[in-house]
Amino acid sequence: MQARTTMATVMGVVLVALVAVVSGQNCSLPDSDKVNCGHVGTTQAECGAHGCCWAPEGKNSGTPWCFYPAGGPVPGGAPFNATEVAMMRGFMRANLNIDNLGGVVASPDRNTPGGTYYWNWERDAALSMRMWYEHSDDSASNLAAMMDSYVQWVLRAQNQVDPNGIDIRAEPKYHLPNANVFTGGWCRPQDDGPALRSTTLILFATDLLASNSMSYVAKYLWTGSESHYHGGAIKYDLDYVAANWASDTCDLWEELRSNDFFWNRYNYYRALVDGAAFATKMGDSESAATYSAAAGKVLAALGDHWNGQFIQESSNRQKGASVICALNDAYMGSSVEANFAPTSSWVAATVNVLSATFTDMFKINTIDTQNGIPGVLYGRYAGDTYAGGNPWILTTAALAQLHYRAASEVVNVGKLPHDALPHYAEMFGESAESLGKLSVANFALRLASAGDGVLERIRYHVAGAGFHLSEQLDRDTGFEMSATDLTWSYANVLKAVAARDAFVVAYERMMA
Ligand SMILES: *[C@@H]1O[C@H](CO)[C@@H](O)[C@H](O)[C@H]1NC(C)=O
Ligand SMILES: *[C@@H]1O[C@H](CO)[C@@H](O)[C@H](O)[C@H]1NC(C)=O
């Protein structure tokens, strides 16, 4: 008996070693380099399923006992597996190109507490079509057909007489499937729409130019003649942004008015910079100069949002997760944007402040943490009371995306972001000094696993509904609530997934 037990143990050890060798895992690394892969309550099976190393002897010493292996295979399993990602893509796809007329339904839910969501919001549609264009797995021809439908939608939306006495381009929402303007009472104008729409269309148009499809661009997107579609779908929107960037507008949540929203300004900035480059490509140096001049002024205003502690959304709404969304959606990586780079001290400080705010604001964050679910759920802003004031999937996913972008940036820059370390130290509950001793690879893994934690917390609350994503999660129970199948929720979760994939590629390239 004794012998057989010993033999079995030996076999077990050999097997474990074999598994480790076969999967290429190196689990023998110094304690100081171990990056937590699991969370409180992680079992050996879950740890293994994430491709991580299991060493429970560290359990009581503060050393992670489920940790990432040295040098890869990179950050174990993704929070959402391929089947789950495909399901979410499918649910999102059903909300696009309604009746083949190019509109995007914000949510097919016609009966939420706030009424029907069966509308095409200009903002949601532009953001969703951008995500789909950049990260869908559609065939090139299906994607081109989908974008063509969207272009036709935008042209129909732009080329009607506004019934509400404002500029048609700043209307918030439209009837489906035909793009007739909504005429009920609503917060107007919403000036982020034209900026977001032009950014999406410029991506498409730039690819068209590169593939010699100039005639399509000249027919619809940049016509070179004011009498033909007001100069084209892209130029018409950019002209609006250049003329109105300093004006009062409603915010992205359609509740508040100001002329200094960070979300708006950063998206104006990106649209104008992209627009100036595109105008130059089209030989329109006059428009290029107009957009560049406006972009310079917007950039100067963006710097005013640092209040000494965090990047604030506006003077009348300081702590807002829309800042995180803007940092993801508008950052272009130029040196003049250094303060808005994913690992800048401003950005790390902002994440830190918002995480603390939302941790305190929602009981579900405390409950999840007690239950060993990693991450944090974000809402919209401090003091939100809409539908009781709840976590939102789209802002939470934006946080995950930002963490993955930060991880990639660390890898790409090849050094630790020393100015931001005190903020990361607070975020991770470690000293800045010990963080500062980590290798570039391990620091990047810290950030990526923070992203994984956030997606894991979302996943925990949406798995029960079969990965259908609603707008909100109940602040006390975490159950999905408000509009079902919100297109923007899918867009942001899938953007986070894409940012994770990009990190894995960058990380593997570095470790190769
Ligand atoms: C495992 O990783 C550690 C830390 O990076 C390294 O010192 C060690 O040489 C590696 N061992 C093997 C077998 O690659
Ligand atoms: C992926 O997720 C689906 C749905 O949650 C699950 O049924 C399936 O077993 C998972 N596949 C793998 C390979 O883990």
UniProtKB/TrEMBL annotation:
Keywords: Carbohydrate metabolism, Disulfide bond, Glycosidase, Hydrolase, Polysaccharide degradation, Signal
The keyword Flavoprotein appears for this protein: no
Pfam families in the cross-refs: Glyco_hydro_15, Trefoil
Signal sequence coordinates: 1-24
InterPro entries: 6-hairpin_glycosidase_sf, 6hp_glycosidase-like_sf, GH15-like, Glucoamylase, P_trefoil_dom, P_trefoil_dom_sf
Segments forming domain P-type: 25-70
Entry's Gene Ontology BP terms: polysaccharide catabolic process
EC assignment: 3.2.1.3
Molecular function GO terms recorded: glucan 1,4-alpha-glucosidase activity
Reactions performed catalytically: Hydrolysis of terminal (1->4)-linked alpha-D-glucose residues successively from non-reducing ends of the chains with release of beta-D-glucose
Cystine crosslinks: 27-53, 37-52
Protein's name in the database: glucan 1,4-alpha-glucosidase
